[in-house]
Structures are given as structure tokens and as C-alpha cells.
Amino acid sequence: MGKKLAVVALGGNALLRGNQVGTIDEQEQNTTETLENLIFFIDEGYDLVITHGNGPQVGNILMRNDAGEQLYGIAQMPIDICVADSQGGIGYMVERMFRNVLNRHGIKKNVICLVTQVLVDINDPAFSDPQKRIGKIYSKEEADDLASRKGWLFKEEIKTRGGFRRVVPSPLPVSVMNVSIVHDLARAGNIVIASGGGGVPVYLDEKNDVRPAEAVIDKDMASSLLATQIRAEEFYILTDVPYIYINYKKPNQEIKEFLNYSDTLKFLNQGQFAKGSMEPKIRACLDFLKNGGKKSIITEAFKLADKRYGSKITMEYEDDRR
After folding, report:
1. Which pick of 56, 63, 118, 238 has the fewest CB atoms within 10 Å?
2. Is 275 a catalytic site residue?
3. In this predicted model, which residue has the larger pLDDT, 151 or 304?
4. 13 is catalytic
5. How many C-beta neighbours within 10 Å does residue 263 have?
6. Domain boundaries defined on the chain
């Protein structure tokens, strides 16, 4: 039997932690600590594809866009360019840090970062109901001015300190471009970094030309799709909690270490998983399994070397739970 192929989605505190400013030193240290735990896959003989989030980083890029326009008259770049910028910067950092980690372990492998476009359907209902908040918080006057000048849409920030944030569509990913190249590189033993931040959102027009979409794609759903399209056996989402819980943070909270598809779907439909955090991760895992994947795992990076790491979702319960 050949090597297993795993897609590992870096998220949560893998790159930037909530109590940090976000300096490059902080991000490089966090990334190195996370990647140390991925040596587990090399030791176990896996082929490996890595994806990553970009939430804080692309938010900072958008705010630099704002500052540059307001202070110096520098033209703002659209969302697709900002996502591509974040893919390049984060991917470079992950690649360089992983090369150094491999070097310390005496492992010789290529690490390759691909700026990845992801196709969406321009007729996706999300385009008529933008919900994804991006960028800085504006006053009502600033938001009204930007809405008038740029056609941006805004929603009020009720739960935080008030103000308004821009909202954009978050359509479902349809296909990852150059997916055969990702597959071939990974199966040749290279570590591939792809589909960062959900991928650069694009669509095909009536001439079949590739056009940019002013949208943000959910990183977990895009990672799940990539895992399906490259026929990975296993899909890992690394986050800031070690397990899947039901009744989370309630007196009857319960760890679910082993789950099958139907039970996980039942808990999802009961509203057990928080929208915007655990829910999209669960949906991504279920999609992967429904489309032929063997196993989905949600855990902390630091748990990977432990033989009883994280929560595992399969189509059916595993016979061997050791």
C-alpha cells in the first residue's frame, strides 16, 4: 500500500495568537512551534499538503490599504489582490520556517508554496446577501461616504464597540485551480502549501476568462475541497481547542473523541457547534467524508504526536480505538 496523503489546515493560534500584536517575530515563532508538530506526518510516512488561514493578516493588509489612500492617495487594491498578497507572505513564512524545522530534524524535502486561485459561482446566493465582515471599523459618516464613493456595503457592529464594518460575499468554493499540480507535487514527496486563506476568489465569465470576485472564501471549506480533489485519505483542521465538544462550556460539556458521520450531522443540526467558529469546520469535515475521504480530525497542533490526539470523524465508527 502506498503512502497516505493528508491535507492539514493551519488555523486558530497556529500563526497569530489573540493576545499578540502580530509582529513578524511573533508570527515566525508561532509558525515554527506549530510546524514542529507536523514532523509527526513525515515520521509516519505521509505525503503532505498544508493550507492556512489569513484572517488577521489580510485584515491588516486592508487597513494598510485604507491608510495609504487616506494619507498618501495610494490607490486601494481589490480583495483578490489582498488575498493573493497574504497568500504569498504567509506561504513564504510557512515555507521558510518549515525548511528550518526539517533541517533541524535532518530531513531533506522540498517545500513549495503555490499562490492558489479558487473558482466560485458568480450566481452563488452569497453574492446577493453579503455577510462576511472584513477590514476596520468605521464611523457611520465614514461608512456612508465609502458606500457612496465605492459602492461598499456595511453592517453595524452590535457586539463589539459599535461602528460599521464592510461586508462581502462568502460563496462556496467550486474548484481549486491547478489541483492536478498540487496532487502530483505532493505525491512526488514534496510538501506543498496551497489554497491559503480559502484561495484567491475568481470566477469564469461568458468567454471562459478568469475574473476576480470581491469575496472571501471560507478557508476550511476550501481546504476540504482541495483535500477531496487531490484524493487525500485524511483531512486535519488544527485549531485552538483539542477536541470537538457538545454542550460546549456548559455544566454538561462532553468531549466527543470518536464520531461517525450521522452522529456528527445530528449534532450539527441540533446547533451544537458555534457559527463562525466550529460549525464551518464540522461542515468541511463532513463534506470531505461525503466525497470519499477516509477520516477527518479536528485538534490542536500540539496534540498530533500523542497517539490519542483530537476528535476523529469517520463515515462509521473505527474498530481500533487504541
Report:
1. 63
2. no
3. 151
4. yes
5. 14
6. 5-119+174-314, 130-168
